[in-house]
Amino acid sequence: MPTVTYHLEPGLAPEDFIDVLVRSTLAERRPIHDLDAILAMWKNADVILTARVDGLLVGVSRAITDFAFCTYLSDLAVDEAHQRQGVGRELIRRTHEAAGRHTTLILLAAPKAQMYYPHIGMTKHESCWIIASQTRRE
Question: 64 and 19 in contact (C-beta within 8 Å)?
Fold first, then answer.
């Protein structure tokens, strides 16, 4: 099995981010055709962590945090060809570590991933409330 390397990579090219979103199926719920939105998502993230195999980007996590109380893991994307190998779990662990283990890590699960998070030890919270975007469907 090839070795996966993980890096904090705030300078990752937006095109690479979009590419892994597509290969993970997360692109279905992200504005991949709006480069300005992707650039803003990237610019305003506090933690960007990547997973690579022989230089190929196979996973990315993007989080917003105050480094004191909470960390919102807004994107977790793993190339479908590299899923079920621990890449997502390690991206979550390292993202939480970079933001501070003393913070509460929060994420909204994509419909296809809802069964994944309990499997890796995350707890479902019954009290999440949202105001959906007025410009796109969630």
Answer: no
Q: When comparing pLDDT for 87 and 133, which is higher?
A: 87
CATH C-level class of 4-119: alpha beta
Instruction: To the nearest 10°, report the CA torsion of 19, 93, 119, 44.
Output: -50
Place of tokens 């980007």: 57
CA atoms within 13 A on the CB side of 128: 10
Residue 136 confidence (pLDDT) above 80: no
Rounded Cα distance, 60 and 117, in Å: 16
Angle between the 35-43 and 14-24 helix axes, to the nearest 10 degrees? 100
- Tracing tokens 């105001």 back to the chain, one arrives at 131
27 forms bridges with which residues in the sheet? none
Q: For residue 71, which of 45, 42, 38, 40 has the smallest C-alpha distance? A: 45
**Segment 9-50, tens digit of pLDDT:** 999 999 999 999 999 989 988 999 999 999 999 999 999 999
Cα 21 to Cα 41: distance, rounded to the nearest angstrom: 13
- pTM for this model (two decimals): 0.89
